[in-house]
Amino acid sequence: MHKSLQLPSGYQELLQELKGRIHAAQVRAALAVNRELVLLYWSIGRDILARQGTEGWGTRVIDRLARDLQNEFPGIEGFSPRSLKYMRALAEAWPEEAIVQQLIAQLPWGHNVRVLDRVKDRPTREWYLRAALEHGWSQNVLVHMISGQLHEREGKALTNFKRNLPPPDSDMAQQILRDPYNFDFLTLADPFAERELERGLLIHLRDLLLELGRGFAFVGSQVPLVVDDHSFYVDLLFYHIRLHCYFVIELLCGRPHKRSSVAQPVMWRSAMRAAIFTPFQYLNAT
Fold first, then answer.
1. Closest CA to 109 of 93, 87, 79
2. Rg of the Cα atoms in the chain
3. pTM of the entire structure?
4. What phi and psi values does residue 93 have, to the nearest 5 degrees?
5. Fewest C-beta atoms under 10 Å: which of 15, 106, 139, 172?
């Protein structure tokens, strides 16, 4: 039996401080990604507006542009025809880059879309966006406030709003951390090749099982295992019904095998015995 660890004085205080710093850094990183995303969308909308004015671009050209962008960046939902039209609407509503930098890009894309849809005049749009930033409203709260005509009760003065960023513990900050548009925006082909392959295999799981042959049953993906206090994750885990054994599949996607990879089968076998095997399987695997 392991003796319980006697924690030094001040440990809990340091732990809480580190948690707060890590969370604050996550929020700052998410806000930075969100800012770049909204600025990109605004610039795309500005370019579409300019081409429509000088070259008479119509809906069919925008549809073609959306299709070509989606072909170039598969899996990113932000380049649909509807999204491009929202980008154009954003650039039309806020033609000055200064206010986009100072206000519009500080809010999530979804907040901007909701305001474009539900508020028609610019001063009221700005009031709701500044209020959302000041109070850290989520999208649902923002929509509720617009529906309740809050600006008419509170007054349309914009001088009461001081914040340039949402409060780090607010609903908006949490929403930015989970915003799928931000995750899509950060999808880069090479670093995520193995995860993309894994996801593709899972989508076509039936075909994969047929390819592997009879008797294979899918157990899970990214199955956690702990070896010597270090966490490892099995990319794909299968069980063979007839052979009564597990099959671990590690996706390398062209990565050169490291020397440590030679010992990995032994590591997987030990970890599987400790973490997943039933007592019957454990005895028969020794």
1. 87
2. 26
3. 0.60
4. -75, -35
5. 15
Pair of tokens at residue 146: 């617009």
pLDDT in tens, 265-277: 556 666 666 566 5
User: Which among 157, 45, 158, 153 has a CA at the least distance from the CA of 94?
Assistant: 45
Q: Do 90 and 41 touch, CB atoms closer than 8 A?
A: yes
Q: For residues 208 and 150, give the distance between their C-alpha atoms in angstroms, rounded to a whole number.
A: 55
For 45, other C-beta atoms within 10 Å of its C-beta total: 22
Please give the pLDDT value at position 279: 45
At residue 61, the pLDDT reads 93
Q: Other C-beta atoms within 10 Å of 68: how many?
A: 11
- Name the stretches of the chain with pLDDT < 50: 1, 188-191, 256-263, 279-286
pLDDT value at residue 116? 96
Residue 19 per-residue DSSP state = H
Task: Give 259: exposed, middle or buried? Use CB within 10 Å, 0-12, 13-18, 19+.
Answer: exposed
Q: What is the residue whose two structure tokens read 């894309």?
A: 109
CB distance 266 to 227 below 8 Å: no
Question: Which pLDDT belongs to residue 266?
Answer: 59
d(CA 125, CA 130): 9
Residue 242 half-sphere exposure toward CB, CA atoms < 13 A: 4
260 φψ region: left (φ > 0), alpha (ψ -120 to 50), beta (else) = alpha
Q: What share of the chain is helix, strand, coil (3-state, %, to 5)?
A: 60, 10, 30
